[in-house]
Design goal:
This protein is of the alpha+beta class. It has helices at about 45-65, 105-125, 125-130; strands at about 5-10, 20-25, 25-30, 70-85, 90-100, 135-140. The chain is built from 3 helices and 6 strands. A hairpin with a 2-residue loop joins strand 2 and strand 3.
Length: about 140
């Protein structure tokens, strides 16, 4: 079985123009971020890559916790680290800073939640796609 995801983009202009992006459940403007001397309107490829990695990871983890009958609230900040050397931009690292708030904080639940938090990163489809190109790390806090 295969799934096809379709995304349409339109761009009229040069480097600092603003384009449009539309998918089945997403519609936004796109441009180069101000950190890279762009107009910073809408989103950009760097945010979208970070968003794809973060949402894939947190949804994968939520599903794994549910299958393990562990109720938790997940709160996460993800940082995308981009290196700029000699004018070349390289996405180096994504760091997921995850706080898991367990509904029932037992030693068994903590150990299982920790194991699943690290396993989810390696099973997420986007993390797999990035493997070998962008390092993805998880920094975990359990409450």
């Amino acid at each position: 079985m295969q799934h096809t995801f379709v995304l349409q983009t339109k761009w009229d202009g040069g480097r600092n123009a603003v384009g449009d992006l539309q998918a089945q459940r997403l519609q936004t403007q796109i441009s180069i971020p101000p950190e890279m001397d762009g107009p910073g309107i809408g989103t950009n490829p760097d945010e979208m890559l970070l968003g794809a990695a973060a949402t894939c990871y947190i949804i994968s983890l939520a599903a794994m916790l549910e299958r393990a009958n562990i109720k938790a609230t997940l709160d996460m900040q993800s940082d995308g680290i981009v290196d700029v050397t000699n004018g070349v931009f390289t996405y180096q690292q994504i760091i997921h800073k995850l706080t898991l708030k367990l509904a029932e904080r037992t030693e068994k639940n903590e150990k299982m939640a920790e194991r699943l938090a690290f396993k989810a990163e390696s099973t997420c489809m986007i993390s797999k796609a990035l493997k070998g190109n962008v390092e993805v790390l998880v920094k975990l806090t359990i409450e």
